[in-house]
Amino acid sequence: MLRREVLKGAAATWGLSSLSVMAQAAWPAKPVRIVVLFGAGGASDTLTRVVGEKLQAYFSQSFPVENKTGAGGNIGMINVMNSPPDGYAIASATIGTLSINQFLYANVGYDPAKDFTYVSRIWENFNVVVVSAEHPAKNMKEFIAWGKDQPKGVTFSSSGVGTTPHLAGELFAKRTGVKGVHVPFRSSATIEVVAGTVDFAIDNVASWVPQIRAGKARALAVTSSDRWNSLPEIPTMGEVGLPDFVITSWGAFVMPPGTPAAITAQLSKAIQEILSQPEVKERFLKIGARAVPSTPQETAAFAAAERVKWKEIVQLSGAKL
Q: Which pTM does this prediction carry?
């Protein structure tokens, strides 16, 4: 009886290993859909399509991109979560869907820590603190002093409640003692900040470089840990006296729970090779992001650490959806 049990266990182990090897050898045998959680033309969509194009060449297989929008990205995440765990569905997830939304929404419909198989980080970018070019404050010290003198507070814009520009603005107000008044828009409020009808924004670097270069907006600081390559003359928040104010937006690929490790390892390896190519790095930088490939384990650990930080920031902001 003992011998039969040992042989049965060995056979089961061999069977699982064989299935894993077969999955790795056969994958991808058909198109692999990549679900982008936001609309076409945005940074997440554009960067994902660069990677999809390269994956198609790498594997000689199609990687079509689908945009499934709504509920801050939650709808697309649920779609991928409920897909078969066979390696043919990828979510181009973001900081919001993996590390923020669960603290904003009463029920996001998934657990980002348990309901997905992590593959790799893809990109990261940062925010920049901007005011109108006509604003009286020429630097961050002057802006904070000016803001404290405004009895009704200072207005800041974002593309919606719970977005990183919103939460960054709330954190800025808490850290500086300036009374912040949030003014949400459907998209980036570039026109309003440039016109001075909104006092400031802490928004995506890529969205603001053209306005800064054209002299329509003034950059006071970037939220990266070191100076951003496209704005090397602009100091970091740490340099202007606000340490531990690193606000990173990022994206990562995840797959349905139970996707074979052989497939995720193969895909992660391909992504790491693709994102290490100088041409791809340059394309990312032109869009306003850095390529940041990682292993599945590193990606899961990074998202978990981000959840700790953003839970605190969301609680500070009082934001709820």
A: 0.81
